[in-house]
Amino acid sequence: MSESKHLLRVENLRKSFGDNLVLKDVSFTMDKGETKVIIGPSGTGKSTLLTCINQLVKPDSGTIYLKDINVTQAENMNKIRQRIGFVFQDFGLFNHLSAMRNVMIGPIKVQKMSKEDAKNLAYEELKRVGLLEHADKYPAQLSGGQKQRVGIARALAMQPELILFDEPTSALDPELIGEVLAVMKDLAENRMTMLIVTHEMGFARTVSDEIIFMEGGVIVEQGPPEKLFKSPEHKRTGEFLFKLTELYGEGER
Amino acid sequence: MTIEITFLTLSLGMLIAVPVSFGQVYGPKWGRFLIGIYEKVFRSIPGIVILFLIYYGLPHAGIKMSPFWACIIGLGLRSGAYQSQIFRGAIQSIESTQMRASRSLGMTKMQGFIDVIFPQAFRVALPPWANEFTIVLKDSSFAYALGVTELLRQGGYIIATTYEPMLIYLTIAVIYFIITFTLNKSLAALETKLTIPGFDIREKIK
User: Fold this and answer.
1) A64 burial class (0-12, 13-18, 19+ CB within 10 angstroms)?
2) Of A56, A91, A141, which is closest to B104 when you measure between CB atoms?
3) Scanning every residue of chain A, which has its alpha carbon at the shortest distance from the alpha carbon of B116?
4) Which of A11, A146, A188, A241 is 20 to 30 Å from A74 by CA-CA measure?
5) CA atoms within 13 A on the CB side of A37
6) Per-residue pLDDT tens for A21-44?
7) Which of B93, B104, B196 is most worth mutating to test chain A (most A CB atoms within 10 A of its CB)?
8) Which tens digit of pLDDT belongs to each residue from A156-213?
9) How far apart are alpha carbons A44 and A53 in whole angstroms?
10) Between the CA of residue A122 and those of A79, A130, A233, B86, B174, what are the distances in Å?
11) How far does the CA of residue A91 sit from the closest CA of chain B (Å)?
């Protein structure tokens, strides 16, 4: 297999939990520098798809390639997870560590970086997400938006080739969503490869290169945002987008 | 001697309890099964029976040891079973995203446990662990039964020469109390010192 043009290639992914078939035959690709947004009603396997990509959940069948490595058959998954960042809906910050140490721990423990270097790196990443003045605070002392930005900085510190975002703003108060989306938008403009599950239509529309609409465990339609919003091929896509836009607004975030 | 027994017992117990609790939460099925047997057996047998089994029973299987070490091993195994339950509860009280986040950074299960889960679980476990400490301290008097010269037996020797049982036993009680009291105080201080800023468990319960 020398088809290594794509950064990420997901083929015929299937996953069920008990009798519940969550993903039926999902395939798509991502290129370096692309931002793709996955949308769809809840319970359609969007989050499961993300956790399958970094193998926090093992798919039943199908293959996932990161460049030319078959992730589904990887011997050392820990090595591969270092290359795939993950941002959680409920942040998942380490409660007993300061923001700074949260960002440092990955490079130190996993990449065996020296404390000194890790500190400098964490400093840069926290600066990037605009949280330098909160570096010594603990997660419980930060607002939701700040926590999520630390979460993004923590993922960035590993220098990942791809970052997966699992509804990064769904647990946030409305007025805090903007600061997180601004950081993500900035990343997109710097050509970080990102796969994002979100309901933020304004963000999807303005920032993403492509939108993937999922329902019932399959990809119903995917394409550039303008096409999906203006002339979707499937009626269902149009209905869903209309509903979400009505709910969340078109927003030019 | 009493203090020596208490500390060795607690240390042995902790040495057993931490890996056991890790196994019980994250281990494979057969591991959890074996651990379950250990933990249930040692929590159901009275301490004194465990000591007699080890000191008088094991020599029949060719394993002989001094009363002191029989006591440490017996009480340590028992305390390990209790402590493993303290730690298991504490580990399970840590939200699962913590482990998922550790894994997502590329940590192994072990790294996630050592660097992320355990430091948090330890803080949760500290108050019940302090309680276990006082239990072990008092259980150290079981060593009396094997002829180890711990606090109680020493008291007995003194009584034999002074004929003042009330006074001596009261003194022994006071010594137990003082040890327990000071250690509980220092563990409470440690608890306060380890409190994560902004993340105060006591505050949550109020």
Assistant:
1) buried
2) A56
3) A94
4) A188
5) 26
6) 888 888 999 999 999 999 988 888
7) B104
8) 999 999 999 999 988 888 888 989 999 999 999 999 999 999 988 888 888 899 999 9
9) 16
10) 21, 12, 45, 35, 53
11) 8
Between residues B3 and B99, the one the model is more confident about: B99
C-alpha closest to that of B191 among B95, B112, B90: B90
CB contact under 8 A, A141 and B197: yes
User: What is the value of ipTM here, to two decimals?
Assistant: 0.84
Instruction: Let me know: does A73 contact A55? Beta carbons within 8 Å.
Output: no
Whether residues B199 and A82 touch (CB distance < 8 A) is answered with no
Kindly report the pTM of this predicted structure. 0.82
Candidates A76, A103, A109, partner chain B, best to mutate (most B CBs within 10 A) = A109
Closest by CA to A208, choosing from A235, A232, A184, is A184
A177, A200 contact by CB (below 8 A): yes
Q: What are residue A101's phi and psi, to 5 degrees?
A: -70, -30
Query: Which residue in B has a C-alpha nearest to residue A52's C-alpha?
Result: B104
